[in-house]
Amino acid sequence: MDSKVIKTSKAEEAALENILLVSSSPHIRSNESVQRIMLDVIIALIPAIIGSVYFFGLNALKLILISIVSSVFFEAIIQKAFKKPVTIKDLSAIITGILLAFNLPASAPWWLPVIGSAFAIIIVKQFFGGLGSNFMNPALAARAMLLTSWPTHMSTFTGTRPDVVATATPLAIMKYGMTADGAASTTVEAATSASQSAGAELPTLMNMFIGNIGGAIGETSALLLLIGAAYLIIRQVIDWRTPVFYIGTTFIMLMLLGVEAQFLPYHMLGGGLILGAFYMATDYASSPVTPIGRIIFGIGAGILTAIIRVNGGYPEGVSYSILLMNVATPLIEKITSPKIFGEVK
Amino acid sequence: MKLDNLTFNGGVNVPHYKGLTEKLTLEKALEPEIVNIPLHQHTGAPCEPLVKVGDKVKIGQKIGQSEAFVSAPVHSSVSGVVKGITRMAIPTGLTVNCVIIESDGMNELYESVKPKGSLEDLSSKEIIEIIKEAGITGMGGAGFPAHVKFSPPSDKKIDTILVNGAECEPYLTADHRLMVEEPEKIVIGLKTIMKAVGVDNGIIGIENNKPDAIKALKEASKDEKNIKVVSLKVKYPQGDEKRLINAILGREVPSGGLPMDVGAVVSNISTTKAIAEAIIEGKPLYERVVTVTGNGINEPKNLIAKIGTPFKDLIEQCGGFKEGAPGKIIMGGPMMGLSQYTIDIPIIKGSGGILVLTEEEAKPAPIEPCIRCGKCLEVCPVKLQPLHLSKYSLKGMFDKTEKFHALDCVECGACSYICPAKRPLVESIRMAKREIIAKRKRNR
Ligand code: SF4
Ligand code: SF4
Questions:
Q1: Residue B280: is its pLDDT beyond 70?
Q2: CATH of the domain spanning B119-280
Q3: From A85, which residue of chain B is nearest by alpha-carbon distance?
Q4: Nearest to B343 among A16, A30, A33 (CB)
């Protein structure tokens, strides 16, 4: 037996005292790690990445890669500049890169994700203290910035055909209506009649579900995004509460606001709702940590999304809703502090 | 009433690591040459020595006691000669007076160690006196004197005695083995407590991962209509008193309160067995089951060890350390146990285990910033918000930690265990608790 039976000599005991680690309990830790969680999110996004390349071609892949590389690059550079430890190993910058690219149209120029990721990583993430301290979702904040600064680049969507013809997203079709030559009609009545008369312009629900429609790179395929989301929920990376309450509330609110039943499925599957609800509203740093807070966050984002879609100036509304709820998060967290076990009031 | 798979809210699944010892029958440890018996191994006042250097003592002879109500006497675990009374480090981290006794190997019993008569003939008062004289304390770790627990103030109506067979700490199997091997004694112990406190409802709760223990106790208690055995879902910290009460009785011990505030008294398995022996054999608490285990030890065992036996002796009997240096030595389990800087310390009444982790296992993980994943909140059985408590504590904002109920933390470690960023959550909350209590004392 290769045991080292302890002798009681003073010297050996003193040696042992120098070896033994003394620390506070617990003495074992789970194998959860920040890196593992981020890796799970990346894994969950892979089906949608592959789908985006399939639907939008290599330009989508190019934008995604540029976005990832520049996010990681800016994270490393800014941490070096601030003389902070470089934490690109935690993989979170990669996720920001992917999500940012997912929000771009496939026809976007190459420099759009570069500027976007600089803004997301440097301003939104690192200026506020890095991973876990950013109060807004970096990718969404960057998207909003890009949309304000380069509205045309950000909202010229291409279809999924290889000849890359400019097209409109289903939600835009529903909101503005769309004549055969692509001119938007302005009134709601016109929209309804236009979309009815030009029914061929609205894609089939099946195409919407699998993602064969116009839109931002990563938001179109509900199916592939849901596969990834299921993985994240099973792995307990995200809480089901936020997305379920978000999407559920959007549905109910749209109904209450008088959206016709036949359009509701388009609203559910389009406009980045699935991407936003499962991958952005669940961002740890910018959403509440309390279980009830997460429900309120979902409901709030759902109400806002429905209102923006029906009454606002944009057809989509997911990003602004989430960003607004991000700002409200500290307050939500405060009022949803759980009642502790055995609390006596 | 539901009797199976009972549980509480929150908590976390931890790996059990019980396979190392759960099938190993109890074994008597070798007779120690020297025992160092601490005069203060319980919650409450320290004992004064009743012996002096050179005195001959026998097993079970009282060698220390205190006049205070909240205290428990200590007894010699060997027959032999008192070699000294000096201050020594003990596993709780304190340095206290210890009586050093050299064993003569004769194992002579002291005259007072004899059966105390049948339970039917003893009054509640007499039982409590026997328990007190036997020096019985909570053997699950806290070391609270049993006779105090069993004498609640008259305005607290107790209706149920719970025996805690959860043993939710990974690695430890001392209680498990006792349940399998001595279930009759546990039932007698429970009946004794029921009589002492004057209630006729006793429940033994056991985690589902010990089916043999559940079976043994069901069998042993089948003729007792006032005693029930219930199974508990395997989840950490199921063995925490308040979690156990919540799971079995559905009651919530109020913040800052005690089990007796909701009509319950909880007793640990080892304690319950010791109580039975105090009645039927007149045996004071001078030995206990210690699980010596971990990947850093050659032959893990469940040993019946005398109080005062040096850790060193038991480790040696278990084949010593495995090749390579041990990384950490812990008294108790890995979730709440205390790490030690030496093995020159004695087994005390609350030592359920000696756990030796390898260097690899003991390596601390690098700490990263909190990513606000909310997992610590999810697992906290008290529904605290460890991330905020910890943040405020590390910033020295202890008033804030008080508002966030730091004092309700049971220090179970579930939050630190789960945290993906490996934040020092319990550590910092513990610090906040100390500060809050110190401040309250200053302001008094
Ligand atoms: S588990 Fe750790 S990382 Fe997650 S919220 Fe709590 S402290 Fe932060
Ligand atoms: S805060 Fe305290 S009670 Fe809650 S999980 Fe952490 S150690 Fe346990």
A1: yes
A2: 3.40.50.11540
A3: B368
A4: A16
As for the ipTM of the complex, it is 0.88
Ligand closest to CA B388: 1
Q: Report the predicted TM-score, pTM, of the whole model to 2 decimal places.
A: 0.89
Residue range A284-303, pLDDT digits in tens: 999 999 999 999 999 999 99
For the CA atoms of chain A, what is the radius of gyration? Answer: 24
Q: Is the CB of B372 under 6 A from ligand 1?
A: yes
- Which atom of ligand 1 is nearest the CA belonging to B369? 3
User: Best mutation site among B12, B367, B370 for ligand 1, i.e. most ligand atoms within 8 A of its Cβ?
Assistant: B370
Q: Find chain A residues with C-beta within 8 A of B427's C-beta.
A: 24
Domain with CATH 3.40.50.11540 in chain B: 119-280
Confidence class of residue A175 from pLDDT cuts 50, 70 and 90?
Answer: low
Smallest-distance ligand from the CA of B423: 1
The predicted pLDDT at position A345 comes to 60
Classify B393 as helix, strand or coil.
helix
Tell me the pLDDT of chain A averaged across its residues: 84
Q: Is the pLDDT of residue A196 over 70?
A: no
Phi, psi dihedral angles at B177 (to 5 degrees)? -65, -40
Cβ of residue A30 closer than 8 Å to a chain B Cβ? yes
Contact, A34 vs B370, CB < 8 A? Answer: no
Cβ of B426 within 8 Å of Cβ of A24? The answer is yes
For the stretch B239-254, pLDDT in tens is 999 999 999 999 999 9
